[in-house]
Amino acid sequence: MSDDKTNENGVSRRQMLIGAGAVAAGAAVSSFAGWVEQAQAADGSTEKWPWPYVKLDPQETAEIAYKEWYRIFCGGAVISSVIGQLREKVGGPYKSFPIDGFVFLEGGQVGWGTICGSPAGANIVANMIIGPRIAGSAVGHHIAADNMDFYSKASMPVFVPKNPKIDPSKIVHTVSDSPLCHISVGKWMKESGLPLKSAERKDRCARVAASSAYRLVEMLNAWHDGTYEKTNDFSCSKENGITGQYNCDDCHGDNVPEAPGA
């Protein structure tokens, strides 16, 4: 019996097999291409970011951050307050983001008193959504810098939660003049006369995280609307030839390092 017998449409069995094979091959190529793309994304070569953003309510975000501080502390709280909402409103990549993995930001990075987790967490979120300057987005860099500036200059804590764990009258306000946890918390402890493990100090830091989350969303919303404008132009490296902050004396005293050629 001939394999080349034609059907009523004039198409031979051999042609049908060739056509079916072509379709299968095309599907295989398409599948392979998708697999390659996934593999490339996994090794970081073609990661698709920044991630999409929809406007959030600053007040609601701050309330979430305040509550989350008591679960995963400052940096994790700020990240959770934004990423958690975007999981519900956007979905996609936010569902796979490991929020709790950033608990290490507490205490200025696992208790070392360096950059406070609140601005650090806010900067992680801003750069995920907008992108860093090395990716061609100066806005993400500016928002991160403005966030550091806000944290350093504001009389913290700014935000007052609807249902605070501690009477607001018992929480003093201080200006850190620094993004460092050691300086920020240290100045507050000196002003309040209360120890690190006090309930008041803990609630103060929860409100600082909420304040940072509130300000972050304000800036992200402005960026989303095309109305964001940077509020500071500080650059220690341009002025002094070395990276740093504008307040060195709290830590260094007379031993502020000078960069060669500065």
SSE map:
Elements: H1 13-42, H2 58-89, H3 117-130, H4 138-153, H5 181-192, H6 199-225, H7 236-240, H8 249-252
Helix pairs in contact: 2-3, 2-6, 3-4, 3-6, 4-6
Key structural traits:
mainly alpha, single chain, 262 residues
| Rg estimate, integer Å | 26 Å
pLDDT average, as an integer?
83
Which range does the strand content fall in?
under 5%
Q: State the end-to-end CA separation.
A: 91 Å
Spans of at least 5 consecutive residues whose pLDDT stays below 50 are 14-46
What are the secondary-structure elements, in order, as H or E? HHHHHHHH
By DSSP (H or I, 4+ residues per run), the number of helices equals 8
Whole-number tally of structural domains: 2
Backbone structural class? mainly alpha
What would your notes on this structure say?
Helix 2 packs across helix 3 (117-130) and helix 4 (138-153) runs antiparallel to helix 6. The chain has eight helices and no strands. With 262 residues, it is an all-alpha fold. The N and C termini lie far apart (91 Å). The chain has two domains: 13-48; 58-230, no CATH class.
Give a quick rundown of the structure.
The protein is an all-alpha fold and 262 residues long. The protein contains eight helices and no strands.
